[in-house]
Hints:
The chain is of the alpha/beta class. The chain has helices at residues 36-44, 49-54, 62-70, 78-87, 98-104, 110-122, 132-140, 148-157, 164-173, 181-190, and strands at residues 21-23, 26-27, 31-34, 57-60, 90-92, 126-128, 145-146.
Amino acid sequence: MSASLPSCSAPARLHATTRKKTCRWIWIMPKAVSNASPIIHLSKIGQLELLREFHREVLIPPAVLREVIEQGQGYPETPLIERAVQDGWLQQKPLQDENLASLLKLYLGAGEAEAIALAVQEQPDVLLLDDSEARLVARQMNLRVTGVVGVLIRAKQEKKIPSLKEALERLRSEAGFWLADHFVQRVLQVVGEEE
């Protein structure tokens, strides 16, 4: 039994997805802010371009740029990320006020803290975060949050990837991204890939 796609007015059934819809499963999200994890993990499985397809611009704070480019030197995915920066759709944006980021850095990593602070500053359509503690903080600040799994779910629903199951398996095996088996099964049921 496969799950059918809900109409535009139906609420999301997974916390991994966020959407602003104009009609059935077409999302318009011109601006996103991202932490390093979604960028790195999508690059590792060859799906970084999904961010470009879903967002006119993806903004990253200085700490994230350092993590994905400077600290990423020598990793095979780094040239893909560098090209995205050169092409201009992945853009570093400075923080106008460092105070919030400094406070958040007491509890979160530098990238997560600056990404949340940048999202508060820029008010994007979505904030891309994978860390569960950072996601909780962002939601408490009324920010829309999704992560690498949410991006892949959207890609499956918009037929940009043939198999979510295959993408999640690659995310686990090639990118070293941890996902609980029961979560994977639930996600696959929602998109109709498993019963």
